[in-house]
Amino acid sequence: MTLLDAVHSLRRAAPQRIDPAVWPVTAQVDVEGRLCVGGVALTEIADQFGAPVQVLDEAEFRYRVRGFRVRLPERRTVYAGHTLLTKAVARWVAEEGAGLAVRTPAELALAVSAGVDRDRIVAHGCAQTTADLRAAARVGRMVLGCGTEIALLASQLSRPQQVLTGSAELAARVLAQPMLRLVGLRCAADEIKQAVSAMADIRDRHGVELTELNIGDVAADADLIDLDEAIDNALDDACAAERFPRPVVVVEPGQAISGRALVSCARVVAVRDGLVTVDGAGTGTVALANRHPLGPTRPVTVVGRTGEVICAQVTLPADLHPGDLLAVVGPMPSGAALTARPPVVTVRDRRARLSVRRETTEDLLGRELS
Questions:
Q1: 14-57+259-364: CATH architecture
Q2: pLDDT band at 275 (very low <50, low <70, confident <90, very high)
Q3: Which Gene3D superfamilies does the protein's record reference (predicted)?
Q4: How far apart are CA 339 and CA 105, in angstroms?
Q5: CATH assignment of 59-257?
Q6: Fewer CB atoms inside 10 A, N or C side of the chain?
Q7: Cis omega before residue 52 (within 30°)?
Q8: pLDDT digit string, tens, across residues 323-362
């Protein structure tokens, strides 16, 4: 049992102000009542880096990646970067031995700039321009979901590119391109039998034996042991029926890895008529972060400055007041145009480090040309 496993077990056994099924595995409340993540009090982070601020728990993120590799040892884990991606995250994924899936040229550029091996990158293409496809070429795998992209991609290649696609019809079009190498299919977890049947049909029609099956995302609350067993059973039945060798199964978890790793902090700016307004945005589970709750509690709705609901009917102290710090599990996206994004601070082993700087009004206005 690892230290994080032990901490997780102890938190489940003890009464907590925070729900261990929702918050990062390192989250705890110190003797002063302050909510801490990665051994650092969120109030200290807000004081040092300002609020609103996003706190990214490295230990929690790595713990979830390792969980997939341990509980799904025969599957290939590829983290879905569109759910949360910074240079630090990309490096953690690579260091934990997982692949990285990207959906946009910006995500790909960030991954490469972070030092991720292009062979471990899976690029998803749908409604991509010629420039997008050119930038995505030379990654380990490309997943093509639109027929128009097949010829476009092939025209941009100087060497063969390995690809996956989602149907037998698109597979035939890929196989007609000399610069594309079809290696597998993409399907949902409950479509494994149909996908293996399609792979057998491709073998019989085209003489090509595919070796990979990408089943995409995994639900954040999925039981990985049950999932692994379900994959095995589906493969056993389908491969026996089609007399097809077992393909490598690739999973692309997103929120199942990153969902608890990011905690957003925002200060209360107003309390009135059951509404608590904070200087941030987003949605998620809310908790008081800067002190012990005092006296009675009451249900309130937490909203951002532009009125968007962050959490409806959450129980918070009745004496909540401006200046209190609230923490929200999950990202704090900019909910309105011309709203500067908060910084991202990574925490690990009682240390906090700025990973992504705060966006400023000057950054936003600097893009305006007239």
A1: Beta Barrel (2.40)
A2: very high
A3: Alanine racemase, Lyase, Ornithine Decarboxylase, Chain A, domain 1
A4: 23
A5: 3.20.20.10
A6: C
A7: yes
A8: 999 999 975 555 555 678 899 999 999 999 999 999 998 9
Tell me which residue has tokens 């056993």: 236
The answer to whether the beta carbons of residues 327 and 301 sit under 8 Å apart is: no
- What residue ranges do the domains of the chain occupy? 14-57+259-364, 59-257
Q: Which of 110, 113, 111, 106 is nearest to 131 (CA)?
A: 106
CA dihedral 252, 256, 258, 263 (to 10 degrees): 160
- Token digits of residue 324: 């209190």
Share of the chain above pLDDT 70, in %: 93
Residue 10 pLDDT: 42
Q: Which of 34, 45, 38 is nearest to 63 (CA)?
A: 38
pLDDT of 15 strictly over 50: no
Chain segment 197-215, per-residue pLDDT in tens:
999 999 999 999 999 999 9
249: its two tokens: 């199964």
